[in-house]
Amino acid sequence: MTERFLNLDRLEQILTCLPRLRIGVLGDLFLDRYFDIDAGLTEPSLETGLDAYQVVGVRSYPGAAGTVINNLAALGVGAIVPVSVVGKDGEGFELRQALELLPAVALTHVLEPLSANFRTPTYTKPMLHEQRKPPRELNRIDIKNRTPLPEMDALILPALEAVWPSLDALIVLDQVSEPNCGVVTCGLRTVLASLGAKHSDRLILADSRMRLGLFENVTLKPNDAECRRWVPEEVSVEQGTLTLSTQRGRPVFRTLGDRGIVVADGVRQPPLARHVPAAAVPGPIDTVGAGDSVSAALAAAIAAGATLVEAAAFANLVASITIQQVGVTGTATTPQVRQRWQEVYQPSSPV
Prior knowledge:
α8 (290-303) packs antiparallel against α9. By secondary structure, this protein is of the alpha/beta class. A hairpin with a 5-residue loop joins β14 and β15. The chain has ten helices and 16 strands.
């Protein structure tokens, strides 16, 4: 039998608590736009002679921080509070429409800048559908802001101040690679460090592609490569994760893809460094958005009273469900989580 990192009673306690939680999501909202292309309809361009792909369907979803929000909503979190900035453009309109479809999401603090030059970050994903083959993603087309928005802190910091007192947890997603060109600026990191120091009992969970080691007094969620960037001389994943936790003074959840999560806490005595294996699932799989589903699950579980190890096990269950949804940014519902727990921990017993 698989080692039981999360027993059924504790799982039910987490799931029962979710509707009572109020979780903030602070960071970069992207629009994920999918173009479904029918390969059989491809025709040559009369002007260039190149293939002209024919789009037969367009799907739009909240991406980046929006994927976190989507996962929190699917899990049944009672109130979800995004804090972000989107542009006054068509992509921003589509993104708001997609967010409005989600239950329990309040858009009061999804703000628009004065500058018309600020674009809503967008990942456009052409999906080629060919006969007798699974859909395959072609080259992605990205829209991002590559210059800082001068009024970003003036928009975001008052919104964070307004929502913080009512939150059970806050998830921070720093998606934009270019420094200070997204929602999470150096000024915002300073404010988060202050909040984390004053309210160490309340979870702030940060995920950053490029600047993870610049966050202070918050719990971190790097992937394997991101952790190695900040701890290059590690001798094992457990030791490296523990080193990063000790350096930053907060727990670290290091995601390892199909190997699961290493959770470390270098502050507690004795220090904790534990590998929680992933839940194995059959293919095909699509790992797009898996890290965001882990962030949502970790924050929800910890806010619901889970231990660090229990939260990692819960996040593994959620991720194992989302990666089986190919061609979309997947989510997991509470019935699906219950079923997956059964499959992982009691595969031979009736539900």
